[in-house]
Design a protein that fits this description.
With 534 residues, chain A is mainly alpha-helical. Chain A contains 17 helices and one strand. Chain B folds into three domains: 10-153, no CATH class; 162-195 and 202-306, Sandwich (Immunoglobulin-like); 311-435, Orthogonal Bundle (Cytochrome Bc1 Complex, Chain D, domain 2). In chain B, the strands form three sheets. Chain B has a five-stranded mixed β-sheet. In chain B, β2 (172-177) and β3 (182-186) form a beta hairpin. The chains are: A mainly alpha (534), B alpha+beta (439), C alpha+beta (200). Chains in contact: A-B, A-C, B-C.
Chain lengths: 534, 439, 200
């Protein structure tokens, strides 16, 4: 292997010229640069979204608290949701795809480098547009950013302030960006594989992103269409979502969740793919059930677009609809179980070691397991009458979205940080980060399960005093969880400054895959001549 | 659906399937259904191994509030069953994970195996059986009781002893008993002072209303749900019922409360800034007590209707107006009457206010806004605004919700508070005549 | 070493120049963009699809329209149809059913009446949106003539009677014995847009 690395390195030296300064980042078409931009953008907005979460928890720490006014509180919950989903998680997973997939499949770059550049540079304006009404409000214009909850339900969103218009515009930009990234990833995986990398030899991360990209292409346009209808309802007198003109508010719920439910899997699948690689590396053992996992991804992808209305059991649905969406939702648990079995099969009888990426990967299995199982209870149309819009629901989707994708992103961040920067992070700080995450996270959300079961309503700025204990515990947990994320920032800085121990090409003893045959950090241009995989 | 041919719809087929399922599958499940008292939730609690300090008589934290309707019993049963099954599934998964993490460590010198999939029949069994077991759990253990519960929940299609219509609006409920000709508005009665205080002491803080919904215990009640503005949701945990009210459309649910008592809930769908302040309180009364309440309320409404026409003193109007203002107006216009910058205009003449041109144009048309400042309009115009609302803004039509005396009191109060010193006294009779005039 | 599920080994080979793939990449990218555009169209197509879905399932209480009741009357059972109504903000009307309920045989044509009074000081146009609950009953509820087919105007102080002529089809499942018919009177929104046809 080392001979390959030496070859690439030496070869690259001749024309490994990277542009310098701001121009490099603005005009770059290099997949590694764009990957890094995506990841830094995602981490930045992960912290911004986290800040909103801390504000929410600060407001809820005891009843009749006045940290936020009801207006600011509704804006904070909305922005927390939108930022975490669209500006933190989606860019980060797109960043990993950009950086790692070409290396994994032996491609010199993404298939459409300029499209790649545009795709990324749509994100910062979108983020600015999303929060811009907050700045306008400081100057006395309008009443602040969107405050309808990230679900933007009509007719509340039809009657709300100009924040909704800005949010729709931001979502259209983000959608365009995601669609560009998805098209690029699909074309790259289909057309740019090195000889010998057949589809069924494709690394699982590439497979999982391929299905994610197809899902994005299928469902994001529905949200854009819905957003455009909402805009015309707000300003041009149409009545898509108002009964007065023959429309229906529930139609928005359908459009939103037709996008919104697959969106959960769009966030989840890429990290599920990465998880298999990480478990395999630290178990020093091949991935278990490769084919089964690929088929499970496909099954999840297909099922995810036909179950959306389980988010709407209380909106008034015919019995037939309730039964259909209940049973089809339960069906998703089957391919997800296949994934769990494959993950457990991968570590079973391996030689396990517990560096930070592995800790986060194991945390993923535990926390996402709770998220998945509580999701089964929510699938039940009757019990959902109690769970829906209660804190039980909040706890459930944080177990699936933090316990799954964010834990997966953390694992992947520590896994690839030495590869990307060429230097190790602080293992000690990494372990602290993990354990504080686990403690903080469970302390935040286990009380929320119990509060929800006791009947605590979500999205309320103030609450009856019998829920005070749950909320207090939850807020303390959230502060621990929030503070813990500074350790991630610390570790990124440590590795980036490069004063620590340099990383070897393989980085981890058990790491497999083409990206670990390259030196750390990989040269600016890689695989200009394609490797053959036999 | 084609009326001429009587083609069966999808919903009919489900109902027919329900009949078959009842005949064929129910006996299988009867044993489980009879064992409701087992409280599987406690088993789940033990299995989850999360011990919380619980008082001897305290509610099991893994169970819903004590159910008092057939639907809530079904819901709790399904919830308990799910929780127990989930705890077992999760426990097995974690045991496998922990065993591997403890046993198969590199630091213990464990050398890795090289398999990448099941090979022998035994290995195939190990991976396939859990998947099949989960399918069995999904569709039989949990699927069948869920089926009955769904069908039972939708049962609003037979005669009920009482029909109540609940009309939701930002941020209150209006209840009507069409056959009894009773109607009243139910809004939060927690004093603003408690909310402002920062340390509420009220045991039913945010869970109390001025006029609770009164229902008979032991009788089936159908509840019709409609909304005037955005989507709201009628949720009382002890009833196992949460049903959205969608503006323009009719939704329906039902309850049969098993024992008299006071049951509390909240609006279950984000409906704007007052979402946290829109509780639901139901007082279930035994049959004779309920009948007495109906008779009293009917008489009371007549008495109130008479009293409504009596003129009131200035001080009475101001006192009544302050209370009514704090309940109905302060959620938006604030207790100070200063409104919210950019969204809700202040009520004091001369106050500066900026907002979108859309809103300020509307206000200017009504005459309440000029050159960036609030203008106090004449009494009749102000009455028109309070009675009919301002369409396209959050200002609702209070004419549908409040009586003449309350509106008269509110307008009197506003015209003599927050720095307004008009000295105007508005009598209920003026409101009565305003109702049939200007908009 | 054989590549096995992510275990890779590499060696140098001669490969075609990158440029030759650019055309294929662009073609595939445009194809995918077209697919995305197709799904955008599908998003808009969901609006009529959804209306069809409502009529098929009775969702939102969407009911049918018939020229006349041609079905035989099922005199063996009764169905109670209850009436309610509401006025949406912006329309200063008073609106109420003239009768609380009627009892009909399935297949039998009945007429129900509502009264509306304009309390405003000018003429207002209103449009009634109809909804029937439970959904399973909505699919068996047919209107022959209804004031909700048209926009209605009331002069200041005017009171008018509105009527709906309907029948319940004999296909109504036997377990449905009661249904509720509700009208929501909205201020008229006619602006010449083609979506103003009410659903019911």
């Amino acid at each position: 292997m080392s001979s390959v690395s030496a070859y690439v390195n030496e070869h690259e030296h001749e024309h490994d010229h990277k542009p310098r300064g701001l121009a490099r980042w603005l005009f770059t078409t290099n997949h590694k640069d764009i990957g890094i931009l995506y990841m830094l953008f995602g981490v930045t907005f992960f912290l911004v979204g986290g800040l909103f979460a801390e504000l929410i928890r600060a407001q809820l720490i005891h009843p009749a608290n006045h940290v936020l006014t009801p207006e600011l509180y509704n804006q904070a919950i909305t922005l927390h949701g939108l930022v975490m989903v669209f500006a933190a998680l989606m860019p980060v997973t797109a960043g990993f795809a950009n950086y790692v997939i070409p290396l994994m499949i032996g491609a010199p770059d993404m298939a459409l480098p300029r499209l790649n550049n545009w795709g990324f540079w749509l994100l910062p304006p979108a983020a600015v547009v999303l929060v811009f009404p907050g700045i306008l409000q400081l100057f006395g214009v309008g009443n602040g950013p969107i405050d309808t909850g990230w679900t933007i339900y009509a007719p509340l969103s039809v009657r709300s302030g100009l924040g909704v218009d800005f949010a729709i515009f931001a979502i259209v930009l983000l959608g365009a960006s995601s669609l560009m990234a998805s098209i690029n990833i699909i074309v790259t995986i289909f057309n740019m594989r090195a000889p010998g990398v057949t589809m069924m030899k494709l690394p699982l991360f590439a497979w999982s992103w391929l299905i994610t990209a197809f899902l994005l292409i299928a469902v994001f346009p529905a949200l854009i269409a819905g957003g455009l209808m909402l805009l015309t309802d707000r300003h041009f007198g149409t009545h898509f979502f108002s009964a007065a003109g023959g429309g229906d508010p529930v139609l928005w719920e359908h459009l939103f969740w037709f996008f919104g439910h697959p969106e959960v899997y769009i966030l989840l699948l890429p990290t599920a793919g990465l998880l298999s690689h990480i478990l395999s590396a630290f178990a020093r053992k091949p991935i278990f059930g490769y084919r089964a996992q690929v088929y499970a991804y496909w099954t999840i992808g297909v099922l995810s677009v036909i179950v959306w209305a389980h988010h709407m059991f209380t909106s008034g649905m015919p019995i037939a609809g309730q039964l259909y969406f209940m049973y089809s939702t339960m069906a998703i648990s089957i391919p997800v179980t296949v994934l769990f079995i494959c993950w457990l099969g991968t570590i079973w009888r391996g030689a396990l070691s517990f560096e930070t990426p592995m800790l986060f990967a194991l945390g993923y299995i535990g926390l996402f397991g709770i998220g998945g199982l509580t999701g089964l209870t929510l699938a039940d149309a009757v019990a959902d009458q109690q769970y829906h819009n209660s804190y039980y629901l909040v706890a459930h989707f944080h177990y699936t979205l933090f316990g799954g994708p964010i834990m997966g992103v953390m694992a992947a961040a520590y896994f690839y940080l030495p590869k990307i920067t060429g230097h190790m992070y602080s293992e000690r700080a990494g372990r602290w980060h993990f354990w504080l995450c686990i403690i903080g996270f469970n302390l935040t959300f286990i009380p929320q399960f119990l509060a929800g079961i006791a009947g605590a309503e979500r999205r309320v700025v103030d609450y009856p005093i019998q829920f005070a204990g749950f909320h207090m515990a939850s807020s303390i947990g959230a502060f621990i969880l929030g503070a813990a994320q500074l350790l991630l920032v610390y570790n990124i800085v440590v590795a980036w400054r490069g004063r620590t121990e340099p990383a070897s090409a393989r980085v981890w003893e058990g790491a497999q895959g083409l990206e670990f045959t390259l030196p750390s950090p990989p040269p600016y241009h890689t695989f200009a001549e394609r490797p053959a995989v036999v | 659906m084609n009326s001429e041919t009587g083609t069966e719809t999808c919903a009919d087929r489900v109902e027919r399937f329900g009949y078959l399922a009842r005949r064929l599958v129910r006996p299988l499940h009867r044993s489980l259904l009879n064992r409701r008292r087992l409280t599987l939730g406690s088993a789940a609690a033990a299995a989850a191994a999360i011990s919380l300090p619980t008082l001897a008589e305290a509610r099991n934290p893994f169970e819903f509030p004590t159910p008092v309707t057939p639907v809530a019993h079904d819901t709790l049963y399904v919830h308990d069953l799910f929780l127990a099954v989930m705890a077992v599934v999760f426990g097995i998964g974690m045991c496998v994970l922990l065993y591997s993490v403890i046993q198969h460590r590199k630091s213990r010198g464990y050398s890795p195996a090289a398999f990448s999939g099941p090979k022998t029949l035994g290995q195939w069994m190990v991976v396939v059986v859990p998947v099949l077991a989960l399918a069995f759990i999904d569709y039989v253990v949990m699927g069948i009781p869920s089926y009955y519960a769904v069908v039972a929940m939708a049962n609003t299609r037979e005669d009920a002893a009482l029909v109540v219509k609940a009309t939701a609006s930002q941020w209150k409920w209006r209840y009507e008993y069409p056959d009894q000709e009773i109607a009243f508005t139910s809004s939060l009665s927690t004093p603003r002072a408690q909310i402002e205080s920062g340390s509420p002491t009220d045991p039913h803080y945010l869970y109390e209303v001025d006029n609770p919904l009164v229902l008979p215990a032991g009788k089936k009640v159908r509840i019709l749900l409609v909304s005037l503005d955005v989507i709201h949701s009628w949720w009382v945990p002890a009833f196992g019922v949460k049903q959205d009210a969608v503006p323009g459309f009719l939704r329906e649910t039902w309850v049969k409360i098993e024992k008299p008592g006071i049951y509390r809930g909240q609006c279950g769908e984000l409906c704007g800034t007052g979402h946290a302040f829109m509780p639901i309180v139901v007082v279930a009364k035994a049959e004779p007590a309920f009948e007495r309440w109906v008779a009293q309320t009917q008489n009371g409404e007549k008495a109130v209707a008479l009293a409504e026409e009596q003129p009131l003193s200035r001080n009475d109007l101001l006192a009544r107006g302050k209370t009514a203002y704090e309940t109905n107006c302060a959620p938006c216009h604030q207790i100070t009457g200063l409104g919210l910058p950019g969204a809700i205009p202040p009520l004091a003449a001369g106050q500066a206010f900026t907002a979108t041109p859309e809103l300020t144009d509307k206000l200017a048309q009504l005459g309440t806004y000029r050159d960036g400042k609030i203008v106090l309009v004449p009494v009749d115009r102000q009455l028109g605004i309070v009675l009919h609302g301002i369409s396209g803004t959050p200002m609702p039509a209070f004419g549908l919700q409040l009586g003449d005396a309350d509106i008269a009191a509110i307008v009197t109060y506003v015209r003599n508070s927050f720095g307004n010193h008009t000295g105007d006294v508005v009598q209920p009779a003026a409101v009565k005549s305003a109702r049939v005039q200007a908009n | 070493m054989k590549l096995d599920k992510g275990f890779a080994d590499t060696k140098k080979t001669e490969v075609p120049a990158v440029a030759s793939r650019a055309g294929a990449n662009r073609r595939l990218a445009w194809l995918l963009a077209l697919v995305a555009a197709g799904f955008l169209g599908f998003g808009f197509a969901l609006v009529p699809l959804y209306n069809t879905f409502c009529h098929l399932t009775g969702f939102n209480g969407a009911t049918g329209t018939a020229a006349a009741a041609l079905t035989p009357v099922d005199r063996t059972r009764w169905v109670t149809v209850e009436f309610t109504g509401m006025v949406m903000p912006g329309l200063p009307w008073k609106f109420r059913p003239a009768q609380r309920r009627v009892r009909v045989h399935p297949g039998e044509t009945a007429i129900a009446r509502y009264y509306a009074t304009n309390l405003g000081d000018r003429t207002f146009d209103g449009r009634a949106i109809m909804s029937v609950s439970p959904e399973v009953a909505a699919t068996h509820f047919e209107k022959i003539e209804c004031f909700c087919f048209h926009q209605e105007a009331l002069e200041p102080g005017q009171t008018r009677e509105f009527s709906v002529e309907f029948f319940v089809t004999p296909g109504l499942p036997k377990y449905v014995t009661t249904m509720t018919l509700s009208y929501a009177f909205f201020p008229s929104v006619e602006r010449g847009d083609d979506r103003s046809q009410p659903r019911s």
